[in-house]
Amino acid sequence: MLAKFDIAGHVIGLIIDRDLTDEMVDRVILEIQEKLEIYKSLNVYVELEKDRQITLKALFKGIKYKYSNSDHFGKIAIVSDSKWFQGAVNVSDILLDVEVRTFDLKDRLEAIQWISI
């Protein structure tokens, strides 16, 4: 399931409670696109719940979407206990002109504070 919440007008929060597959990335992108119809630029909070994984295909699809639409993002917070996912996000964002930070699940409140500013 994909749960959506608004932190502020320009901030969308998404919590994923299952493995992040190619199909789930499509749902995430759809939610973001709907919000972009209202706001030109967004901050995005994505939380992958404990013990959930991401497929390689989903990771590449997400990276491709981020690069293709980077001018629409101010900040992106990725919250997950998956160290390989956090590492892949950090490496993929080296050349991206968007502030991207990864957080452990225990630090989700810090992530929400950071993304809200």
Automatic annotation (TrEMBL):
<dbReference type="InterPro" id="IPR038396">
    <property type="entry name" value="SpoIIAA-like_sf"/>
</dbReference>
<dbReference type="Pfam" id="PF11964">
    <property type="entry name" value="SpoIIAA-like"/>
</dbReference>
<dbReference type="InterPro" id="IPR036513">
    <property type="entry name" value="STAS_dom_sf"/>
</dbReference>
<protein>
    <submittedName>
        <fullName>STAS/SEC14 domain-containing protein</fullName>
    </submittedName>
</protein>
<dbReference type="InterPro" id="IPR021866">
    <property type="entry name" value="SpoIIAA-like"/>
</dbReference>
